[in-house]
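Hallway conversation turned thread

IA: we were arguing at lunch whether anyone had actually written out Glutamyl-tRNA ligase end to end. Turns out nobody had. So, for the record, here is the sequence (276 residues) and right after it the C-alpha cells. Reply here if something looks off.
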Amino acid sequence: RQRFVYDYFDWEYPEVVHWGHVQLDDYDVKVSTSTIAELIDDGELDGWDDPRAPTIKSLRRRGIRGEAIVEAMVGLGTSTSDVDLAMSTVYANNRDLIDEETDRRFFVRDGDQIPISGDHPNEANPPLHPNHEERGVREIPVGDSVVLEPEDVPEEDERIWLKGIGCFRVTDGALEYTGDDLAVVREGEVDVIHWAPAKEGVAVRMRTPDGDVRGHAEPAVGGLEADEMVQFERVGFARIDNAAQSATDDSSGGRSRDRHEADDGTEETVVYYAHP
C-alpha cells in the first residue's frame, strides 16, 4: 500500500528492513488475530490471555516478563524475510530474570498415593532456595502417605530419595524409611524425586500451552499471594493466578487469589505454567 503512494508521486522506494512476519515455534494456534478471535468466539480458547494463545497478554499471565520478550526480539535482528522466534530463547531470558528471586516448591502432577512406614521424620525441611540459605526452609508435613508422579514410582525393593526427608525402599507396596545418609545420593545409587503429602497437600490446576494439568502441591502453595512466581522442582516455573474470574474478566481489579472447585468439589488453586 505504501509503495502505491511512492509510485504515485514518482518517489524512489527505499529498501525496507524489518522483522518480517514472526512465527512462534511452541504453539499449535496460528499467530493470527482473526484466528485467535474466532477460537475465542467458538469457546475453544478462554480469552486473549489463554495460555494456549500466542499473545503478549497470555505470556504476561504466565509470568513471562516483557524484558525477556524484548531481548529475544532484539536478538533476532532485522531481515527482509519472515523469521521464526524460538520460545526457548524467551524462556531462557525469563529464567535468567527470575531464577534467583523465585522460591522452590513441590508440585506432583497426576500423582499416585503411596503409604510410607518406618521411623521417618514427621516434617520435611527443604530449602526455599538452594542458593539463599538466609531465606530459610519450608515446613512440609509428611504424614503416613505421599503422592508421587507415576513415572517416579519405584518397583518393589528399589530405593528412592524423597527430597527433604531421606531414603526409602519399596517393601510390600509401601515406602519404608531407611535413613538420611546422603552418601547414597552422592554415589548415584538412588533417584532423587519430589513429592507431596497425600492428606495435607493442596489441590492445584496448572494451566499450560498444552492444556490443563491437575495435581497436588505442598501446603504452603495455598498461602502464596497472587502474581507470585514459584519454581515447582523438576517441573518448572509458574505464576500464582489472581482473582477467581474467567480469563477475560478484568472487572474486579482485586488481588484476591484464584480458587476454583475441581470436578470432585474440592477447592483448588490455579497457577499458570511459565516454562521449564
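OS: looked through it. Confidence is low (pLDDT under 50) at residues 243-258.
IA: good, adding that to the notes. The longest helix spans residues 87-98.
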